[in-house]
Amino acid sequence: MKTTVKELYARFEELNNQEVTLFGWVRNNRAQKEFGFINLNDGTFFETIQVVYENEILDNFKETQKLRVGSSVRVKGILVVTPSMKQPFEIKAREVEMLGDSLEDYPIQPKRHSREFLRENAHLRPRTNLFSAVFRVRSILNHAIHTFFQDRNFVHLAAPLITASDAEGAGETFKVTTLDLDSVPKIKDGEVDYHEDFFQKKANLTVSGQLQAEAFALAFKDVYTFGPTFRAENSNTTTHASEFWMIEPEIAFADIHDDMQLAEDMVKFIIEYVIKRAPKEMEFFNKFVQKGLLEKLNKVVSSDFIRITHKEAVKVLLDSGQKFENLPKYGDDLATEHEKFLVKHFDGPVFVIDWPKDIKAFYMRMNDDNETVAAMDLLVPGSGELIGGSQREERLEYLEKRMEEMNVPKEELWWYLDLRKYGGCKHAGFGLGFDRMLMYLTGIENIRDVIPFPRTPRNCEF
RNA sequence: GCCUAAUUAGCUCAGUUGGUUAGAGCACAUGACUGUUAAUCAUGGGGUCCUAGGUUCGAGUCCUAGAUUGGGCGCCA
């Protein structure tokens, strides 16, 4: 019977004394004079299976003794339940066939490696315990997101990755062009002639699918996007990548409070979903990556998220007596040190709402005080700003005024303004950093270690 | 982009005040071993001490510049 490690762990009791065939990679090989042990992993399950081989049974015993870590093999043998041993069952091999050798200089050894070294071997690191766990959970997290929204009748849309709008704010974008960069066509005063370009205008990779999601929300009511996003900022931190994934739900006939409730429900759902479907991996993170991780996550699921206004948050910071590098101020953004203090102070995720209008985007709905907007950030320990969202300005005249004040070109966003002209309604949404969510779930401290092949400034290997 | 630290064997690291032939564990190779599980034990091979200059009788060690990497901060809808 051709089977997998995952299946054997699920059914080993009923398969006692049956013959099975496995394909996988050698994680460890401990050879002795007349017998030896191979730890086999086939990628389907976090655990390995111990294969016992004996000189009396195998004709290629000598070759099997010399199998190196990383080799791919086929193993045929009898499953034997071993209740008194360290492992619940093992395979008594009848045949062990090497399929692919692993050369002497194989970098991945059965020992602890530094994260930095494994980053430089991003093509091999999914074979380690840690990254096997990270990327399986990443896959499950992906599914959790879709399940959460699909179960609630949200419609998924794929927002475009190439946009022509230059009106999305201060974020540095990657340019998309088919122009010959060695000989760019110019118009009279030396400026680039984009009429010669593929789209006949400036184009760039998207920094957000939100504006398009709004258009769909005003047709389907509840929608979400889930896809990659690109930022060309020269950011060198543990929470920034040049290419990352975002989830951006958008809900119509809803305000900022509905928005926060959705965010809170989603975070709780995701945590429960992942813990249930990747218990081995989550235990591993709990033990070896961040002690107390599971306790922290379980607490998040069972408690209500704190909600405070930006003003209250600044007051908490000022009253704390804590010395900060940057002095907290009512009109200013929160610095990283402030965010860290707040999540520690409240010992869990914190929504900060009602932000000063001048530090937020043009589309956020003006509050009645005319000074703050209906924006919310969800701060969590370890990943900083996990979610940023807002109620959107649905009143055409307010929106146009803000665009003028903030120098956002109205002509390019004519279609966005149309949404306010034809059956506009109050609506809200948020963006969740998928990779940061994964950091939060696993306790991994660097975003480069939760992305299969991360892109950051000066790094586009693999 | 700013500040800071690091770079020595395939990996993780030690290397004293500038002084003989730069070490250890793991990995690898050879051998021993009748239940190992990061197996153990013995033996062996393996080095452009990041790069380029400089100081010195003598540099892994001190100085200058650069590269790469980590951390902190900034930038960041």
Low-confidence stretches: none
Report the sheet with the most strands, covering strand number, pairing sense and barrel closure. 8 strands, mixed
Which structural class is indicated by helix and strand composition? alpha+beta
Treating each run of at least 4 consecutive H or I residues as one helix, how many helices?
A: 13
String of helices and strands: HEEEHEEHHEEEHEEHHHEHHEEEHHEH
Number of E-state strands:
15
Let me know the average pLDDT.
Answer: 92
Q: Give me the side-by-side strand order of the main sheet.
A: 6-9-10-15-14-13-12-11
CA(first)-CA(last) distance: 37 Å
Approximate strand percentage = 15-25%
Instruction: Bin the helical content.
Output: 25-40%
Q: What is Rg?
A: 27 Å
Shape: elongated
How would you explain this protein's 3D organization?
The chain has helices spanning 5-11, 61-65, 115-119, 129-151, 210-220, 256-277, 279-289, 293-302, 310-319, 336-346, 396-405, 414-421, 434-442, and strands at residues 19-31, 35-41, 49-54, 72-81, 89-100, 155-156, 162-163, 204-205, 222-230, 243-252, 306-309, 350-356, 372-380, 384-391, 427-433. The protein is an alpha+beta fold and 462 residues long. An eight-stranded mixed β-sheet has the order 6-9-10-15-14-13-12-11. Strands 1-2-3-5-4 form a five-stranded mixed β-barrel. Strand 4 and strand 5 form a beta hairpin. It is elongated and about 85 Å long. The model has no long low-confidence stretch (mean pLDDT 92). The structure holds one RNA strand of 77 nucleotides.
